[in-house]
Amino acid sequence: MTHQQSIMVVDDEPGLRKLLNLLFSNAGYRVSEASSGAECLSSLRTSNPDLIVLDIMMPEMDGREVCQRIRNDENMVPILMLTARTQSRDIVAGLDCGADDYMPKPFDMDELLARVRALLRRGQSSMRTRVVGEGDIVIDGQTRRVTVKGTLVELTPTEYSLLAVLAENAGNVVPHEVLLRSVWGPNSQHDQDYLKVYMWHLRRKIEPSAGRNPRLLVTEWGVGYRLVQ
């Protein structure tokens, strides 16, 4: 029997929860709902959704705090945040708490479904173990564990997918549009500012002391990014 993938929708607005439930159900997903951050965290003790769609602006406990608590429990379920805030600093704040992707409100339903499909695919990579950067980075494709100089680095599914694409092409420049298409799908291949934020965040985890002079994740200006072999 084929596994029916499940999505948990977390939002304090009943109308939006109903809309998203209908959208995802019609697309073939099993859907559960939570009306608050506390209800989401409580439900996760007994359920294991394949993806969480999480609103940021909620009373009492906002989406960023919910996301942070989920990651503190070492739960790496993909999390897509819904937000009315789309400035880079707001995106970075979401990534800092462990989110994988974000969608601005109001959103296009077809694009939301595309982002959901891309996120769910990211959890299915079967890349074999790769050692890059003269042994600095070890990527285990079976366990999806990444170590940098022997230290385990916690990556979200999106960060892992970005690193995996670069590792599969280690030593070569991967163009912006190839990275965007590989990780987010064909409709995202021109959104370079979007990619820049995610790469900056990944670089902070892979080589936090590098500052403006990264040695492993190198920017090839105007072209793309390269993971040094």
Descriptive key words:
four-stranded antiparallel β-sheet, five-stranded parallel β-sheet, 2 domains, Arc Repressor Mutant, subunit A, 229 residues
Textual characterization of the structure:
This protein folds into two domains: 6-122, 3-Layer(aba) Sandwich (Rossmann fold); 130-227, Orthogonal Bundle (Arc Repressor Mutant, subunit A), CATH 1.10.10.10. With 229 residues, it is an alpha/beta fold. It contains eight helices and twelve strands. 39% of the residues lie in helices and 21% in strands. The longest helix is centred in the C-terminal third of the chain and has 15 residues, at 192-206. The strands form three sheets. A five-stranded parallel beta sheet has the order 2-1-3-4-5, sandwiched between helices. Strands 6-7-8-9 form a four-stranded antiparallel beta sheet, covered by helices on one side. The protein is globular and about 50 Å long.
Query: How many beta-strand runs?
Result: 12
- Helix percentage: 25-40%
- Indicate the CATH topology of the largest domain: Rossmann fold
Low-confidence stretches: none
Distance between the termini: 42 Å
Q: What general outline do the C-alpha atoms trace?
A: globular
Sheet bearing the most strands, described? Answer: 5 strands, parallel
Question: What is the second-level CATH architecture of the largest domain?
Answer: 3-Layer(aba) Sandwich
String of helices and strands: EHEHEHEHEHEEEEHEHHEE
Strand fraction band? Answer: 15-25%
CATH class of the largest domain: Alpha Beta
Structural class: alpha/beta
The total domain count is: 2
